[in-house]
Amino acid sequence: MMKVLIVARWEYMEKIRSKAFLIGLFLTPVIMVGMGVLPGLFATQEDQITKILGVIDQNGDIAIPFATRMQKRYSLDNGQPNYVVLPLGIGHELDMEAAIRDANRRLVEDEIEGYCLLPKTILSDSVVEYRSNAVGDFRIAQRVKETLQEIIAEERSAALGLDPKILAKLQVNLDVRTIKLSEAGEEEDSGFMKVFFSAYLFLMMLFFLIVTSGQLLVRSVIEEKSHRIVEVLVSSCSPTELMAGKVLGLSGLGLTQMGFWALIGIAMSRSFGLDFIAPGQALLLAVYFVLGYLFYAAVFIAAGSPLTTEQEAQQVTSYLVIFLIVPIVLAIPAIKTPDAGWLKIMTYIPFLTPTMMALRIPIQTPPLWEILSTIALMAVSIYVAMVTAGRIFRIAILSTGKTPKLWEIIQWARRP
Amino acid sequence: MLRVEHLRKEYSTVVAVDDVSFALERGEIFGLLGPNGAGKTTTIRMILDVIKPDGGTISFDGGPFSEQIRNRVGYLPEERGLYRKSKLLDTILYFAGLRGMAHGEAKKEAIRWLERFGLADQTSRRIQELSRGNQQKVQFICSIIHWPDLVVLDEPFSGLDPVNQIVFKDVMRELKQQGRGIVFSTHQMDQAERLSDALCLIDRGKVVLAGTVREVKKRYGRNSLHLEFDGDGRFLPALPGVDRAILYENSAELDLGKGARIQNIVERINRNLELRKLELREPSLHSIFVQTVGRQDEHLAQGKNGS
User: Fold this and answer.
1) Which of B64, B190, B212, B215 is the least buried, fewest Cβ under 10 Å from its Cβ?
2) What ipTM goes with this model?
3) CB atoms < 10 A from the CB of B137, how many?
């Protein structure tokens, strides 16, 4: 037992100081934050300077009220209007081709941000175009749409002889708020994006955790094999002790990593007021993280210890990564239909259980029986995987030279 | 303390070790000799429980290999390997810990050995920054730091410069004097001849010669007489006890047969010739090997240039 701890301590201390680990430790949260938060920040950032838009109005009655309202309604922080709308052509007799050519030239020369094209038929078929070289700017499109809708509605109601005041009363601005019900039936304000983001976040964390330490594990075994360090190790302690030590040391490493990330997560949610997840769910997630980590440690040992080169190790790692990616791909359908049968079935494949649960828990905490049965399933799977890995490991670490064939490895695994 | 009996190991196509037996007592240095690929390393791996034999037994003080034995053996493998990115002292302490040594004691011993090997100022350097010779010293320290009763050294001198070879040999003799048993393998016959008390020569998995150095020489080797003289030496090949003679103008080499009475031969020579020089030479292990196996092996280096 002492030797298991000595191996564990060595594996932990050597790897925690390795570049690969430190990079993973610090870079992963940076990537996560970068992917999850930054696009949102950019999207909601207010404009700093007035933007100039153009309008070509073949109908003739829309351009002026549109320009006026855009200018009045939206203003910058400093009180200046957010948008100034230049009429680039108005009227039925307009030479559309020339007007569009002129507008395009202004666009290319950055005179204007974009322009609206209002056809003759706008009042009847309600189709307009907004042309810009930055069509990803949803906010301009949204504001243009709202303003034009208003004007067109007014024009139409005037044509019908309605009082504009009645129209104002008729207008409905519906705000649909999504409320997620927690297990206890309590209401919890939660948007689709928030659920998606937190499910995604935990999946990615588990993914990085397993891949980083799996690679570290396989690499160290390959180094020990290629430099024959393993002979000294195996004459000092049994292969089982050696493997147990490695798994233990690596688990410590995983916990360190998780703890560090959790601290960052808590600090971030405190300072930005974002709460990704309820404490009970976090605890449950931690359980699946540990289970998944141990299971994949065994899988990496079984798959990695027969290898002899770094290249092979990278190949095998990339195969295993496929299992880990599956739930990431399924994230969106899973959020839409968290009760789907296929989702439940996939949860019972041991390779997918931890990640599927990491995906499902933030969306909707699965029922207790599912939690207990998957934990039991993982416990059994970990036991079987560890025994199998141990059988492969004790032979694989001493076989050098050629990488063994798959059937040879299977034979090792079957020998008690 | 170590007894190896009828050891056997087969691989799919070859029998790597075939019926190898030998014994080692405390305070003895045992040489395991043979050309490359003879089965020395396989034998050593079985002694240290790195691989399991297909047949035969290995016992330590009468009992089988056990977890307690692990802490009482030290091992320098043939293929040198250490964690390249790890620091020198950390590495030694790890291996000492794995042999059951307490941290504080291990550190004290490590420093002592590092000083002796001239590495005391490099304790926090990474292994990969050290020269090959220095890496080998670190490995040697790893194999002896925990005061093992049995030290197994696989080709300890290969790749080592002559100065450090002497240091290694001195340490081996010290360990012997402290009553520890040492098994070392080599393909350099002259090393074995000078260091070992007993030896065993393996060729293609089989023991070809075994015993103490003296015994082996007596049993298998033939002495030879080298003489320089004035006079007519033509009677020399006909002397009783002389198997073969090479005659030159004023000198000769006489291979003596088994049971040849050297005293008589020398008297006869002395009576007939004016002797200027007379030398009785023991056979070298190398020549014994060549005689026994009946072939010259290019890997079996007589000098120090092997690796």
Assistant:
1) B64
2) 0.79
3) 23
